[in-house]
Write a structure and sequence with these properties.
Number of domains: 1
Radius of gyration: 18 Å
Order of helices and strands: EEEHEHHEEHHEEEEEEEEH
Distance between the termini: 22 Å
Helix content: 10-25%
Number of helices: 6
CATH class: Alpha Beta
Oligomer: single chain
Strand content: 35-45%
CATH architecture: 2-Layer Sandwich
Number of strands: 14
CATH topology: Alpha-D-Glucose-1,6-Bisphosphate, Chain A, domain 4
């Protein structure tokens, strides 16, 4: 699912952020947290305006086949790791498979109401980090605990795509369920985010849910179309050619795990996105989007999901 819900002021929960998937985890409180961005499928997201008309010609980037190939390889390797984790008894969630004492620390913190965040990095068979030429891969995982909720209640919320524009506003401007076939959903989001510049995207997603039993479910969301919008809301509104735009979001896959236990539901989301690299001389314009939004998007999605359920 896409990760909506960014940019709004909200009460500040304590957030714990690990250093990396392959290293020791380190936690520190994050203050002044803004409200969360998604999905489902929240996705990362954007339209150029805000500071007048930025130099779009200088910002333009092309999504090359070699970049797509590298991203697809990264996703395949990540999905193989996820499948391996799901096959381990007693560790349905990623955080349940963390080494001790990190595992106990994280689970205790999440149950206390904190949002767990960690940056991941998938490696190839030789142990090298998989990179995408002329682009950046952003890979984050987050987890939250929703006390008093049931798995059915959580799924009812995340699958109510027509209401996501209310739950995850103002970043999700529009949301619509296009088609449902059993546990497969096709959805549309118009996403908008402001950070130095404003970016608007039209996005389509396919979300597949895999119910395992009465207390466990997982899902996989893939953005099947991401188009940057120019002059959003004006008579001159139009889309830039896909893959030949400003490169703020080219790909977005997310993987959700839901587990009901401990008198509540754990929601865990792993998000992989692809953006352009940061061009020389335009870091002030591009960097805030391509470096901070993927994490903030995931963080806010988890927070908004929990808040919406707690209101019920």
């Amino acid at each position: 699912m896409w990760l909506p819900g960014m940019g709004r002021a909200r009460a500040t929960p304590t957030i714990f952020s690990g250093v990396s998937y392959f290293g020791a985890s380190q936690f520190a409180p994050c203050k002044n947290m803004r409200k969360f961005l998604s999905a489902t499928i929240f996705t990362s997201v954007f339209l150029l305006s805000g500071l007048g008309q930025p130099p779009t010609a200088a910002c333009a980037a092309d999504l090359e086949p070699k970049t797509v190939e590298a991203f697809n390889y990264y996703v395949e390797a990540t999905e193989a790791r996820i499948a391996s984790e799901l096959g381990k008894p007693g560790a349905f969630l990623h955080i349940e498979g963390l080494p001790e004492p990190q595992r106990s620390t994280v689970l205790t913190s999440v149950r206390k109401g904190e949002i767990y965040m960690d940056r991941l990095s998938t490696r190839d068979a030789s142990g090298s980090v998989i990179e995408a030429p002329d682009a950046l891969i952003h890979h984050w995982i987050g987890a939250v605990f929703i006390p008093g909720a049931t798995l059915r209640q959580v799924l009812n919320l995340v699958q109510d795509y027509n209401r996501h524009q209310d739950i995850y506003q103002p970043e999700v401007i529009r949301s619509k369920l296009i088609q449902r076939d059993g546990d497969t959903f096709k959805i549309y989001y118009r996403l908008q985010e402001k950070k130095v510049i404003t970016v608007t995207l039209n996005t389509d997603h396919e979300v597949q849910y895999f119910p395992l039993d009465s207390t466990h479910c997982r899902s996989r969301s893939v953005a099947t179309r991401i188009a940057e919008v120019v002059d959003a809301g004006l008579p001159t509104e139009h889309e830039k050619p896909i893959g030949h735009d400003d490169g703020f979001l080219w790909r977005l896959d997310s993987y959700w795990r839901f587990e009901e236990k401990d008198r509540g539901v754990y929601v865990e989301v792993e998000s992989i996105s692809l953006t352009r690299d940061i061009p020389t001389g335009l870091g002030w314009l591009i960097k805030p989007f391509v470096t901070s939004i993927p994490r903030e998007s995931l963080l806010m999605t988890l927070g908004d999901t929990r808040e919406a359920l707690e209101k019920k």
